[in-house]
Write a structure and sequence with these properties.
By secondary structure, the chain is α+β, with helices and mostly antiparallel strands. The protein contains four helices and four strands.
């Protein structure tokens, strides 16, 4: 087991190492759509690349989610075959969001032996997500 402080240091070390290994300016929050962002996630069990739609206004959130659902076959067939769509997901703080993501299981941020494969997974899938977004950005925003 790791203490909270040790865990924090390991997480910082991973993300610094990831940034140095894959230096790139990611889109992340710079989608030009409010509450619509890309995220990296890595914990003690899984890694994910996420497109999160966090609009407080449910109608606006559903509008963007439905736009992405209409592109689902393109996203699956041309970019991310393993993509998962989740219309309703609750964050730890209780906020309801919609998200689309790819998942890698059986990795742990506490296990440095899984870092390289996780970094490759994160980088590869975020690039594909960004390519998809750039290609269909005008449609999603309209």
């Amino acid at each position: 087991m790791f203490s909270k402080e040790d865990s924090k240091k390991i997480r910082e070390e991973f993300w610094i190492s990831f940034g140095k290994s894959f230096p790139r300016k990611w889109i992340l929050y710079n989608t030009k759509i409010r509450d619509f962002s890309f995220k990296f996630y890595f914990d003690t069990k899984i890694a994910m690349v996420i497109l999160a739609i966090e609009c407080v206004d449910i109608e606006k959130r559903m509008y963007y989610y439905e736009k992405l659902v209409s592109l689902k076959s393109i996203l699956k067939n041309e970019y991310l075959p393993e993509v998962i769509f989740e219309e309703d997901y609750y964050l730890d703080n209780g906020k309801e969001i919609s998200r689309i993501f790819v998942l890698k299981e059986e990795v742990s941020i506490h296990n440095k032996k899984s870092w390289q494969e996780t970094m490759i997974f994160l980088e590869k899938n975020m690039l594909l997500f960004e390519d998809f977004f750039r290609e269909y950005e005008d449609f999603i925003k309209s």
